[in-house]
């Protein structure tokens, strides 16, 4: 059952209009207070690009769960609520398009690539690969033209690759399914392969000499025993050279993962209109409300700074919604 709209009477939220997604049947539910908690919009590419028009020319991937379509943002906005900081979206750098998606929109998050060397679509290194987070790695990729890169590994490194998708994990666990990951490396059209660096470069459509120079130079830094690569400052302790065939190049593109902006609320999680006046009996919590309030994380977040405020704002919204409905004393009173 999907919420399609809020029912507002005399400026007060009194319930929701829903639709049964299988039958199309409409049903209204009434309540003394309503809490919206429909999550983010990082799996709605149109909405991501609407809020980050600068990324329109580039390949950007959808990367939250399938329900993170931003329905709630539209529903709250239609009821008069205000959205804020919608362009503050957290992008992962380490993702390739999911070849199983006929629309080419969804991405697969790739991990276990500690020794990968990143080169841009022209075959040049451009970044300290150690800094692969949203505030560093994604930004560096977005500064390339086009905003993509190849993450190159060799045959000794493929054993560590994991894919953040249940299909590539043993059923019901987060343990990698070795055969399925190996299959992905062999069949994805977004992965270049080669038994030599020359054939890899051809598969990547990059001049052979350029790729060879880039990899030879990187390998020479490791051979020389320097602590950091002099080009981009990557710490080299424990890093492996790219030298054992077969070689793979994964075509990374920025993947929208989390939303830092959303529905603007006050400290009681009451939804605010464009004049920052509350909409009576309407509350919003979680990622829909930028984790809390509209933008509690600011522009950046660390892994783990979403779930906490989502839960916390849910408790606050729930307590004040109950209070508005005549139960309890609200939160922290
Ligand atoms: C793969 C992944 C890993 C993550 N890992 C971490 C982590 O390690 N640490 C961390 O802090 N954060 C992490 N996050 C972020 C965090 O999980 C989310 O920010 C958080 O779960 C959001 O919680 P929520 O309850 O607000 O929304 P959600 O968990 O997204 O729940 C919203 C629900 O509403 C449903 N919904 C949407 N629209 C409608 C509608 N119209 N009608 C009815 N239902 C609707 C959705 O289907 C969904 O079930 C991760 C996110 C992803 C995608």
From TrEMBL:
InterPro entries: FAD-dep_OxRdtase_2_FAD-bd, FAD-oxidoreductase_2, FAD/NAD-bd_sf, Succ_DH/fumarate_Rdtase_cat_sf. Transmembrane segments: none annotated. It holds the Pfam family FAD_binding_2. GO terms for biological process: steroid metabolic process. One of its GO terms (molecular function) is oxidoreductase activity. The keyword Flavoprotein applies. Gene3D superfamilies: FAD/NAD(P)-binding domain, Succinate dehydrogenase/fumarate reductase flavoprotein, catalytic domain. Its cofactor is FAD. Residues 2-295 form the FAD-dependent oxidoreductase 2 FAD-binding domain. Keywords: FAD, Flavoprotein, Oxidoreductase. This is FAD-dependent oxidoreductase 2 FAD-binding domain-containing protein. It comes from marine metagenome.
């Amino acid at each position: 059952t999907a919420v399609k709209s809020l029912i507002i009477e005399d400026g007060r939220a009194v319930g929701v209009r829903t639709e049964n997604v299988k039958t199309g049947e409409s049903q209204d539910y009434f309540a003394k207070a309503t809490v919206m908690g429909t999550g983010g919009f990082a799996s709605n590419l149109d909405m991501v690009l609407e809020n980050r028009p600068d990324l329109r020319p580039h390949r950007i991937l959808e990367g939250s769960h399938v329900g993170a379509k931003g329905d709630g943002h539209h529903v709250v906005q239609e009821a008069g609520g205000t959205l804020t900081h919608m362009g503050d979206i957290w992008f992962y750098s380490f993702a390739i398009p999911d070849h199983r998606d006929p629309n080419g929109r969804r991405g697969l998050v790739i991990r276990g690539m500690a020794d990968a060397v990143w080169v841009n679509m022209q075959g040049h290194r451009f970044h300290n690969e150690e800094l692969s987070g949203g505030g560093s790695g994604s930004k560096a990729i977005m500064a390339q033209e086009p905003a993509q890169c190849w993450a190159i590994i060799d045959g000794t490194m493929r054993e560590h690759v994991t894919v953040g998708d249940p299909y590539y994990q043993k059923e019901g666990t987060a343990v990698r399914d070795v055969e399925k990951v190996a299959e992905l490396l062999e069949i994805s059209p977004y992965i270049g392969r080669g038994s030599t660096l020359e054939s890899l470069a051809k598969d990547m459509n990059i001049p052979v000499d350029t790729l060879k120079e880039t990899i030879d130079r990187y390998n020479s830094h490791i051979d020389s025993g320097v602590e950091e690569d002099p080009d981009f400052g990557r710490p080299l302790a424990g890093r492996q050279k790219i030298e054992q065939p077969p070689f793979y190049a994964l075509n990374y593109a920025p993947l929208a993962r989390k939303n830092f902006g959303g529905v603007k609320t006050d400290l009681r999680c009451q939804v605010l209109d464009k004049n920052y006046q509350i909409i009576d009996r309407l509350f919003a919590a979680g990622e829909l409300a930028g984790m809390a309030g509209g933008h509690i994380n600011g522009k950046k977040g660390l892994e783990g700074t979403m779930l906490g405020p989502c839960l916390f704002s849910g408790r606050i919204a729930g307590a004040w919604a109950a209070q508005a409905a005549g139960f309890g004393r609200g939160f922290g009173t």
